[in-house]
Write a structure and sequence with these properties.
Elements: E1 2-11, E2 16-24, H1 25-40, H2 47-54, H3 58-70, E3 74-77, E4 83-86, H4 95-102, H5 127-143, H6 147-151, H7 154-161
Antiparallel strand pairs: 1-2, 3-4
């Protein structure tokens, strides 16, 4: 499952071009979980709270929270009184690191088919290099942002989410 984000590219001789980019739902949910946890810190957050706030299924969120815990972004606690908190301050959590964890690969295109046979034009093709450079630029921009940057004005976000 992918979440599509639409953005406007700079004008190039006339009207602005509209482009879209796709992130896996896992990346999107990971960022939402971390933002919610940052807004509630130092308090503990539950999967059910995040699910209710964003309308995301509990099953999806359990997987996401588990992955964020293994990745060192969250401290988790199971059982009665359980939940999760940020493992580090929001200023130290880079958006690029979270998205890298959520995406299957930083490579945009694979130069092999499902059977593992290489593409016939691989030795002379420059497509993969161009797309790899674009992906590197994408992650470089995300690396410039921290979780704290995403919160903007925390009080407004808390009010919007009702927390």
């Amino acid at each position: 499952m992918y979440c599509q984000y639409t953005f406007r590219l700079a004008k190039s001789q006339g009207a602005a071009r509209v482009a879209s980019m796709r992130l896996r739902a896992y990346s999107d949910y990971s960022l939402r979980v971390l933002m919610y946890a940052a807004l509630r810190q130092p308090g503990r957050v539950t999967v059910d709270e995040v699910g209710e706030a964003f309308g995301i299924s509990r099953n999806h969120l359990v997987k996401v929270v588990h992955g964020l815990g293994r990745g060192g972004f969250l401290e988790t606690r199971r059982g009665i009184g359980g939940g999760f908190t940020l493992a580090r301050p929001p200023e130290e959590i880079r958006v690029g690191d979270v998205v890298r964890m959520g995406e299957e690969a930083e490579t945009v295109v694979e130069c092999a088919d499902r059977a593992g046979r290489g593409c016939r034009i691989f030795p002379v093709c420059r497509l993969r290099r161009a797309l790899d450079e674009a992906a590197a630029a994408f992650f470089s921009v995300l690396d410039d942002y921290s979780l704290a940057d995403l919160l903007g004005r925390p009080s407004r976000m808390r009010a919007t989410l009702g927390i």
